[in-house]
Amino acid sequence: MDTTFLFPVQLSxxxxxxxxxxxxxxxxxxxxxxxxxxxxxxxxxxxxxxxPMVLPPTVLGYYLIVLLGRNxxxxxxxxxxxxxxxxxxxxxxxxxxxxxxxxxxxxxxxAALDGVDGKYENAARALGHPEWRVFLGVCLPxxxxxxxxxxxxxxxxxxxxxxxxxxxxxxxxxRTQTLSLAVYSATQAGQDSLAAQLVLIISVLCTLILWxxxxxxxxxxxx
Length: 223
Hints:
Blueprint: H1 3-36, H2 42-50, H3 57-68, H4 73-82, H5 90-114, H6 118-126, H7 131-159, H8 163-169, H9 179-188, H10 192-216
C-alpha cells in the first residue's frame, strides 16, 4: 500500500492512542481530586484545565512552542540535560493531542465521579478500606461508563487534531504527518482522490466512536 496513505493512518492511530492513555490517566486522577477535595481556587483551576476545549488550536500550539521550544523553560532544560527536542517530532504531536483531548476526559471523569452515590463510598470506608481502595473498588467501577465515553471522545478529538500539531510537530511527510495534516497537504496539492480516502477513514472512525460513546451514556444500555 502507498506509504503516503498508510503512514498518516498509522501515525494518527499511534498518536491518538498514546495521547488518550495519557489524558485518561491525568483526567481521572484530577477528576478524583476535584471529587474529593475542596480548596480555594478550585473552580478557577477547573476553568484553566478546561481551556483547551475553547481556545483556538493555534493558541494552544503557541503555548506549547513557548513551553517546549528550544528557548522555552521545559524545552531548554530537556535539550541541555538530555539532548531531547520535541519540536518537529511525532512525540510533540502526542503532547499536542494530549493537551486538546485532556479536558474531555477530565470533565467526563469529574461528572461521573460526582454522580456516584456517596453512601457506597461511606460504606466502603466504614468497612475500613483506605481511600485508594474506595476509589479503585467503588468509585471507578460505578463511574466507569461515563469515563469510558469521555475517553472515546478524547480519542476521536486526538485523531482529528490539526492546529496545535501543525505548530509544534510540523507537517513532515513520513515523520510527523498525521491524517488531518495529510488531508490538508493532499488538498493543497490537488490530490483529490487521496484526500477523499483519508477523509472517509477519519469520518467513519470518528462517527463510530461518537455512536458508541453516545450509547454508553444512554441509561439502560447494556450491549
